[in-house]
């Protein structure tokens, strides 16, 4: 495909003359007129302000998302669409089609040429060169449609995962509008190519100047494109006639029912009124008991139903061998939790579903995820019935960081408390030692003074008893006794 003459941005222009003089008839006039009409349709679509606005929106989105979304698949799909749009601009298809309009005679010139019998028309090399341009543009439009569809699918998948919802809504709406416009250009190029072939045969029959010797132009655009893209060239039938027929049939039925209404009245047997005696002294306790038993049975059955569903889900999770199977089971359980209004379980399972989709992408690339699958099974079983402490892998990163901070704070406070207690204990030991030393020193001083007094008492000469009595009398006398 790369070596084909139509698959080039700048197709070499033929060196022959651009216009030739040939016999002009009413058939030639009709062919040129239809050719100019189809050419004008293509130019109008390419130069439309709506298409240019959507292309500018595409450029703005790519400019804004260039840094933050560079690794995103949707961004890569938009970049591929941008490449196709830039290639269409570099082809300068509108310039080539405008040259065709300038070379073809206008309405006044065609009227005069019919009278004269001759007119200047585009030459065979010029028409074959334009056919190559149209074929390349049609192939480029089919490639653009495929890339728009691929980017649309990726963006819709992210919306399903509830990721960047508003941004993906904008992208999907823009891609759908671009797809419709490019499909319109593809259909108009197909009709223009058919008119170019018709006019080319007439010019080649009058003035043969072959330009393409190694390449034969296809007879139809559907043969040139792949079958999936050729299907887009088939115009879908409108449903207006069928809807109008259905409405007319319904109106006829209503009219017939109204016309048969007054004549075909049927008397219905409504029965006879029966008088029932009301006893206000009746006891309602048995009835209330029955109702209470019914409600209790209902709640009991609901609880058993939920428990059975959870056990079934846990069994499916344990039997899942890949993350793809796990994602299918999670999707089913999320829908069931939403129907049962189990918000906490639904939020936890939705978080696990996002994680499971990321693991699925890694698994598709060829990584071994069996160890991750084991821990993921525990998380899914806990999320189905969240009781007790959550697994570490199921906690959010913010909560884990907060818990780690609290743990470090508590550890620092404990270490500070322990260090302070150790310091106070050392101080108390030092104080006790000092007190003990002081007591020992004081006791040793007292013992030394006692020994000294003993030695002095023993050293003094012992007097007689009479002398001691005299000393005692002197003491009492000095006291006035």
UniProtKB/TrEMBL annotation:
Pfam families: NEPRO_N (PF14780). InterPro entries: Nepro, Nepro_N. Residues 426-438 have a biased composition (Basic residues). GO terms for cellular component: nucleus. GO terms for biological process: positive regulation of Notch signaling pathway. Residues 238-271, 421-471 are annotated as: Disordered. Residues 238-249 have a biased composition (Basic and acidic residues). It comes from the Eukaryota. Residues 6-197 form the Nucleolus and neural progenitor protein-like N-terminal domain. Residues 444-466 have a biased composition (Polar residues). Coiled coil: none annotated. This is Nucleolus and neural progenitor protein.
